[in-house]
Amino acid sequence: MHYVQGRYIARVNWIMLEIKLPKEIHKTPLAMEIMLNSLYQMSAKIVWWDKYWKGKVKDWFSLEMVSIEGNVKFFIRTGAFYKNVIEAQLYAQYPDIEIHEVPDYTRYVDYRGKEGDWEMISTEYALTKEDAYPIKTYVDYGMDKEGVKEEFKIDPLTSIIEYLGSIGKDEQIWIQILVQSASKRHKITSGKKKGQMGNWQDEGKEIIDELTKRNEKTPEGTPSFKMMLTTKGENEIIAAVERNMGKFGFDCGIRAAYFGKKDKADFSHIKALGGLLRPFTTFNLNGFKGGDQTYGWDFPWQDYDKTRL
C-alpha cells in the first residue's frame, strides 16, 4: 500500500503559484472562504480501485506565507492539473490580484545540517481541543460585516505579517498550511452509529448532546429537560459548534520554520513561532498550541532520541 501510494505521489507535478495582492482589498474574508471551499471539492472521495491498485490519495494543497529577508509573499503549492481551476477561483473573487507560476523558493536554501549554509528551527501546531470546536475566525473579529471603516477593523493577520516583515538580511520564515478534505477519523461513542467512524460533524453532535444533556432520561424514562438549564457560556459554545458543523471540513497540517545563515541565525525566533497563531485562540472554544519542534527543549533529557536538529 505504501509503495503504490509513494509511486502515485512521486508522479505528481507540483507547481508554485505566487499571489500578488493589490494595496487594498475591499471584500470580506468570506470571499476567500468561498475559494477554499473549491479546494474541498477538488480532493473528492476516491473509489477503491484507484485507492488500492493505483495508490491514489486525496489531493492536498499548501497555502503558504513566506518572508524572504523581510519581503512577505503568498503562495499556493498545487498539482499542475489544478492550476487553471485555482486561478479561475481566485480571479472570480479577487479580480485585481496577479497570479504567476514561479520557481519553488525552498530550493534556494541549502539546509543540510552541519554541511549546509543555513541554520533552521521549526515547529508544528496542534489544536488545543477536539476538531469540532472552532478556532477564533473572522466572524468573531466582526470582519464579516461590510461597510466597516478601516480604523475600526481588527485583522488578526496584521500581527503575523508585521512579524514576517521584521526579519533582516540572510533570514527567512516559512509558514505552510497543508489542506485536504476531511476524513472520518472520529469514533462515534453513542447513538445508532456507535462504534462507527465519523467526521467532525458527528463529533460536534456528541459535544452538543453532552452540553445539553438531551439524551438523559429520568428514572421514569422521560426526558430530563436539563438542556433548559444550560449557562450563557454553554449556549455560546453550542452556537459556535453548530456554526462550525455547517462548514466544509479540512484535515490540516500547519508548520512554521525559521532559517538564518549560520553567522546570523537568531534562535529566539522559536518563541515567536510558538505564539504565532495566538490571535486565533480562545479559551472556551479552540486554539493552537506548539507541537513537535526542532529546537528549544526545556531540559536536555527531553532530546533523548536526538530529534533536535
* Record field, number of beta strands: 10
The CATH architecture term of the largest domain is 3-Layer(aba) Sandwich
Which secondary-structure class do the elements indicate?
Answer: alpha+beta
Head-to-tail CA distance between termini:
30 Å
CATH top level label of the largest domain: Alpha Beta
**Helix content range of the residues, please?**
25-40%
Radius of gyration over all CA atoms, rounded: 22 Å
For the report, how would you describe the main beta sheet? 8 strands, antiparallel
Major β-sheet strand ordering: 4-1-3-2-6-9-5-10
Could you say how many structural domains there are in total?
A: 2
Give an overview in words:
With 309 residues, the protein is an alpha+beta fold. The chain folds into two domains: 2-182 and 250-303, Vanillyl-alcohol Oxidase, Chain A, domain 3 (3-Layer(aba) Sandwich), CATH 3.40.462; 186-243, no CATH class. 26% of the residues lie in helices and 23% in strands. It has eight helices and ten strands. It has helices spanning 2-10, 30-42, 48-52, 83-93, 157-164, 200-212, 232-245, 269-274, and strands spanning 14-20, 61-68, 71-79, 98-102, 118-127, 171-181, 186-187, 197-198, 250-261, 288-293. The strands form two sheets. Strands 4-1-3-2-6-9-5-10 form an eight-stranded antiparallel beta sheet. Strand 2 (61-68) and strand 3 form a beta hairpin. Helix 2 runs antiparallel to helix 4 (83-93) and helix 6 (200-212) runs antiparallel to helix 7 (232-245). The two termini are 30 Å apart. The mean pLDDT is 83.
